[in-house]
Design brief:
Oligomer: heterodimer
Largest sheet of chain A: none
Strand content of chain A: under 5%
Helix content of chain B: over 70%
Largest sheet of chain B: none
Helix content of chain A: over 70%
Distance between the termini of chain B: 52 Å
Number of domains of chain B: 2
Strand content of chain B: under 5%
Number of domains of chain A: 2
Order of helices and strands of chain B: HHHHHH
Shape of chain A: globular
Largest interface: A-B, 87 and 84 residues
Radius of gyration of chain B: 19 Å
């Protein structure tokens, strides 16, 4: 009688233990799988999808190349001359700088947003050609300035 | 604060910059570039620094810097960017054409 009543007591425990172990196993397996599956698509996407967000280094490269060329193009340009004439005439050069600086930020924002808007409208291939032509035009304007003095 | 002077400086510079070289370059780079933010920050920082130098140096800019040479260098830089734009797209073209599953990548 004892053994009969003990066995059912033991058996459920053992079963529960084995079940909890197996469920633990399952859960660890599951989480491992989940980690792997969450890692895989990211790696694949980073390797193949060019539309992924850029790394900081790439972005810094774009920033610096833009900064240097535009800065060199603007040195001695008519805007700079305007600013220096206005600041020389007025007694408040900082006010002139504030006005000119905010205007320049506004125009560059307009330009970049216009470019961004165009990029949603025109096919990338045509757009890159058009952008290259535009940059060559800018280079031509600069060279014209150089020749004219 | 002299608001009239501020407004005058803003309007003068805004109008003279509208459709000028740097804005054309900003349109071109913003449309083709991979990062609009980087292009905007680069353009704005360069323009603000240039006008800052204009205010600081006053009439001495031409004496301090050989502006003609600097402009020539900038022109070479823009030509280089234009060439890179065409070159990069040509290099990427076959990869893009072989990727019909692009919508799935973004999911």
């Amino acid at each position: 009688m004892l053994s009969v009543s003990d066995l059912p007591l033991l058996a459920p425990d053992a079963a529960a233990e084995s079940m909890s172990l197996s469920s633990l196993d399952c859960s660890t397996n599951g989480s491992e799988n989940r980690v792997e599956s969450s890692l895989k698509p990211q790696g694949q996407a980073a390797a193949t999808n060019p539309a992924q967000p850029l790394s900081l280094r790439d972005e810094l490269g774009i920033f610096l190349s833009t900064f240097i060329t535009i800065f060199l193009a603007e040195v001695g340009d008519k805007t700079q001359v305007t600013v220096l004439l206005m600041s020389a005439q007025s007694k408040a050069p900082w006010v002139v700088f504030l006005g000119a600086g905010s205007a320049l930020i506004a125009t560059s924002l307009c330009g970049v947003l216009l470019g961004k808007w165009l990029s949603t409208r025109v096919s990338p291939r045509l757009l890159d050609k058009a952008a290259a032509v535009l940059l060559l035009l800018v280079a031509g304007m600069l060279l014209l300035d150089v020749i004219q003095g | 604060m002299d608001w009239n002077l501020l407004g005058l400086a803003f309007v003068t510079v805004f109008v003279s910059e509208l459709g000028d070289k740097s804005q054309l370059a900003a349109i071109a780079l913003g449309s083709s570039g991979k990062s609009v933010r980087a292009v905007f920050l680069g353009t704005a920082a360069a323009l603000v620094l240039a006008s800052f130098l204009g205010v600081m140096l006053g009439g001495g800019v031409a004496q301090v810097m050989p502006t003609r040479w600097i402009k020539a260098i900038a022109a070479v830089g823009f030509v280089g960017m234009a060439v890179r734009l065409l070159w990069d797209r040509d290099a990427e073209e076959p990869v893009c054409a072989d990727e019909p599953a692009e919508p799935f990548d973004s999911v």
